[in-house]
Amino acid sequence: MSGRGPIGGIQDYLGIGELSFELDDRDRRSFRVACALPALAILANAASFTLDVFRGYGYDSNEIWRRLDAFSGVVQSPLTYVGLAGLVVFGVGRVSHAQGSWAFAIAILLILAGFAAGFYSSMMFLFAVDADLYETYHVSHALTCAWQFGTLAVGFAFLAFRGLSSDQADWDQDEEAAA
Description:
Distance between the termini: 35 Å
Strand content: under 5%
Number of helices: 7
Shape: elongated
Order of helices and strands: HHHHHHH
Radius of gyration: 20 Å
Structural class: mainly alpha
């Protein structure tokens, strides 16, 4: 194991080599397109959570807010699966090493966030004795976040695998040598 710190230890354990985060313009544009649907799914979840919190403070008197809350609650599940499918379809094609590095970093962040949300929900179910506390502390939204972040982390991990695998790196080097 090299002395590159904790990320270096993970890199050595997984055998992914060096991470490089320098995207060229073409890779940056295509990676943004690939991340658009997962970002929309996360934004829908954030909007649903925010509107649920505001509803607890009595801001549900306006019909538009109720409709927006219902819409964001309905679209977050399909958007998560469509975002995962989009990441897999994007990963079937050429994934650069830099895109794989970014996908690896995003997957790690999503895994950590999903773990934190799942841990929070587990602790609330374990220690909350009153059913009203589940709503007060938004346990259902924390469970939704854990599920959504875990699902999207699978797609980003697939992209990371494709971009950081040795065969893909050899293909990138051969392509650069031919150019």
